[in-house]
Amino acid sequence: MEKFEAEGRLVYGRTGVPRLKNFLDDMPGVVLGSVWNDIPPINSQAQERLGYATQKRTALLERIITASTHEGDMVLDPFCGCGTTIHASQKLRRNWTGIDITHLALIEKRLNDAFARIEPRRGDGTPYRQYGTFGSATHARCLRQCRRAAIRHRPHQHRTGEKGLPKSADLSPGQNLHALPLGFSPAPPTNVIIRPHHPPAVVLVQLDDLKQEQLECVRPAAFLVLQTSPGNHQAWIAVENGNREFASRLKKGTGADLTASGSVRVAGTFNFKRKYAPNFPLVTIEEAHPGRIVTRTELEGRGLVALAPPKPEAPASPLRCSDRPRRLAWPDYERCLDKAINRGRKRSSADFTWCCIALDHFKRTPEETAARLLEVSSKARENGEAYALDQAMNAAAKVAANPRSPAR
User: Fold this and answer.
1) pLDDT-based confidence at 74, cuts 50/70/90?
2) Which of 236, 224, 216 minimizes the C-alpha distance to 141?
3) CATH topology of domain 193-301
4) What is the average per-residue pLDDT within 148-173?
5) Is the CB of residue 191 less than 8 Å from the CB of residue 178?
6) What's the DSSP call for residue 282?
7) Dihedral pair phi/psi, residue 291, rounded to 5°
8) Cβ distance 186 to 180 under 8 Å?
């Protein structure tokens, strides 16, 4: 009694009988059930109402996040809508990632209104950075055209919180994520590469590794221009009634990479080549003209097509009296690459096949084959001498194990 009296928890009625004050904090309470009816839905008069059809109360998301995470944990909302989960996570000092196809201006305004005192990272006044979104109607139309060409890619827009200060508390730093298609993980780095299908009666020609001067000559005929790395561009041309031989001449005439495989990195993703580490460049769309198709005559008139090589006459085969094996030049790498592409295999498969032919039928040594592979294969040049020698040695082992090989 004396303790309760000292704490001011006794109340005396008219009769003088003391009564004990009970506070909610002292009561064990009732375990929260599966039906929460103490948080009303958002009505038309609610102050936090944004006009989003499926918007939930911030208090509801705060309860869910508080019950299932600790401060500093990562919260992922793959369908973040108007950003209620993002708002609650930022307020509760959680790192967060939001993904959705939505109007990002709505989330931007919500975060800037709720957390006014933001410490910017790059001086632009925003608490997060945004990558990979299509910023113009041209880019959106290009995406639609690509989907018609059987390219299945949807540009999900990602938002990630960074270090900032809300009105009442200091927030913990967030983590940067980038705009990748749903189903691709940003770590470890993954190149997002697609291969378009050729529409009927049209050949899509990839002109890769174009410098600025080369690009300006090609630009009037291209339906899509990408920047894959600083100073390097890629253009795509749709040629009516084209064929493989004409595509090869077009690449040669424009100075493009003759060994380009026909695959393209998705705009809005990063080019994870080792030579660019750690600052991997973002693949961006510079220009798009959906539906643009050019004729062979038009390209030849612009001077973009190399002349067709004359067909060499077959020389008379001289009489050979030596038992020394005949040494020819080199196998056709383009032919090996085309076969690999048509069979849906990787470029490394073309490299291996080419090495096998060079060793088996052209009587080359593994060292000669590796050195030549570095000249004809762009993949070998990217991965270096170790890759080329490894391909040549593996091919030599296969040739030696083949009982039908003339090298045995």
Assistant:
1) very high
2) 224
3) Alpha-Beta Plaits (3.30.70)
4) 34
5) no
6) B
7) 90, -5
8) yes
Does residue 121 carry a pLDDT above 50?
Answer: no
The yes-or-no verdict on residue 136 having pLDDT over 70 is: no
Q: What angle do CA 354, 357, 362 make, to 5 degrees?
A: 125
Q: Where are the domains of the chain?
A: 58-160, 193-301, 333-401
Give the position of tokens 């375990």.
31
Give me the helices (H) in 255-328, please.
Answer: 296-301
> Is the pLDDT reported for residue 164 higher than 90?
no
* Under 8 Å between Cβ of 299 and 239: yes
Question: Model pTM greater than 0.90?
Answer: no
Structure tokens that stand for 87 in this block: 């708002």
Residues 77, 160: Cα–Cα separation, whole Å: 11
Task: Determine the Cα–Cα distance for residues 33 and 31; give it in Å rounded to an integer.
Answer: 6
**Do β-strands 74-77 and 95-100 pair in parallel, antiparallel, or remain unpaired?**
parallel
User: CA torsion sign, 71 to 72 to 73 to 74?
Assistant: positive
List, for residues 108-117, the tens digit of each pLDDT value.
Answer: 778 878 876 5
End-to-end CA distance of the chain: 105
